């Protein structure tokens, strides 16, 4: 029987690229570029809640 590897924890960050901010996660997920840093942080929070539900 094959053992499943333990799921990696999700850690999000926000980065800036020019006048845009975007959220990234250690799982490889990247949110859309946003002009609002607050909206990029919200994208990251939503991703974490979605990842916890899986």
Description:
- The chain is built from one helix and two strands; from the N terminus they run ββα.
- The mean pLDDT is 90.
- The protein has one helix at 37-53; strands at residues 12-17, 20-25.
- By secondary structure, the protein is of the alpha+beta class.
- The longest helix has 17 residues, at 37-53.
- β1 (12-17) and β2 (20-25) form a beta hairpin.
- 31% of the residues lie in helices and 22% in strands.
- It has a two-stranded antiparallel sheet with strand order 1-2.
Structure described in brief:
The chain has one helix at residues 37-53, and strands spanning 12-17, 20-25. The protein is of the alpha+beta class and 54 residues long.
Lateral strand order in the biggest sheet: 1-2
Summarize the helix and strand pattern as letters: EEH
Q: Write down how many β-strands occur, each being a DSSP E stretch of 2 or more residues.
A: 2
> What characteristic shape results from the CA principal axes?
elongated
Distance between the termini: 23 Å
Q: How would you classify the helix and strand content by structural class?
A: alpha+beta
Overall mean pLDDT stands at: 90
Helix content: 25-40%
């Amino acid at each position: 029987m094959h053992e499943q590897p333990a799921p990696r924890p999700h850690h999000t960050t926000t980065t800036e690229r020019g006048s845009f901010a975007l959220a990234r996660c250690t799982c490889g997920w990247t949110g859309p570029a946003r002009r609002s840093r607050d909206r990029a942080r919200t994208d990251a929070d939503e991703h974490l809640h979605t990842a916890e539900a899986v």
